Amino acid sequence: MADAHPHAMAPTRPGKTRTAPPQRPPQFPMGGRYLAYTAFGWTGLIYLLLGFLVIEAVWALGDGAAAWQEQLLRYEHPVYIAFHVLALASVVFVGVRFFRLFPKAQPPRIGPAKPPPQSLIHGTLYAVWVGATVVFGAILAGGLF
Amino acid sequence: MAETLVKKFVVTRFDPDKDEAPRTESYEVPCHPDWKVLDALNHIKDEIDGSLAHRWSCRMSVCGSCGMNVNGQPTLTCKKAVSDLPDTVEVTPLANFPVVRDLVVELDGFMEKLKSVKPWIIRAKEKAVEEGPMRQSQAELEEFKQFSMCINCMLCYAACPVVANEPEFLGPAAIALGHRYSVDSRDEGAAERNEIFRGEGTVFACSYANECSEVCPKHVDPAAAVNQAKFNAVIDWAAGLVLPRGGKE
Ligand code: FES
User: Fold this and answer.
1) Hey, are the CB atoms on A9 and B235 less than 8 Å from each other?
2) Are B164 and A37 within 8 A, CB to CB?
3) What is the CATH classification number for the domain harbouring B98?
4) Looking at chain A, which residue has its C-alpha nearest residue B13?
5) What is the model's pTM?
């Protein structure tokens, strides 16, 4: 088992006897249920890279029509396509994780109002997600504007 | 008489006066089929090696003192049947805690964290006894009852990956127990606790691994409490921007 942070759960003042350092949960980071937690952390790197790609795209737009056409051609490269598939998978993974949490994270009341049933919140989140995807898809395909 | 199952128990041992670091020791234990892991540990202590140190009290999943990692899983040893485990059972102290001796972990760090969230009813002004009891409806009770079921067994801390990385993190049980009072209709200290929960290493350090809720033997769902506390802390902060006195009456 790997060591946890040496001060994990240690009191501010040391006790009377010497203690052995805390150990991490044995399956951490890649075993059992911890895999999802670790994968969630790694998605941060994917979003960071996506951020750079957005800056690159804005840069190309600012450089004029020819630069933008070149940028579009670059997007057809298999590495770009693979990265975007990975980014899509990350967004779906994080979205599903968040949607699982969101209903039970509702406070029991906000003022006098009670939240609706969890199943309704859950269903609404997915409906909005699917709806937004369809709308954005239609815009990107030139079907709406 | 029912046949006994002989299981090999690999138990972590640590004597702070003698051992440089924890080590393991193996014991062949003839277990009755209806034994729990705690019965096997008590058998080791009573019949094989009296120097083994472990905590327990109620033997019925109420006191929360017998938490240990059993085959890597944070477990109440008085609840886990040996018949559900393989032939080799590895018993280690709860992960993420300093070890005092053998299977006994240091709980003072948790007690400090628990105290910091003010887990008691805070009243602006105490109600006089003559005014009678503070009444609470069934619906008001339901709002915190689940969170009040916590038995401080520390399994949630042993499972939480954030606790292992960020020593200042308040952790699941302390936050759940603070939140339990914030949503109690008799309490008037939610604003104070929200202030605490907006601080460093508290509710926003949680990235929803949900491990705490997976291992909780009392179905407290600390992950829900932590994330409800996030929500309340944000709403309280936003209300403070537009309403006088943080939106409190
Ligand atoms: S001995 Fe009390 S919970 Fe296990």
Assistant:
1) no
2) no
3) 3.10.20.30
4) A20
5) 0.88
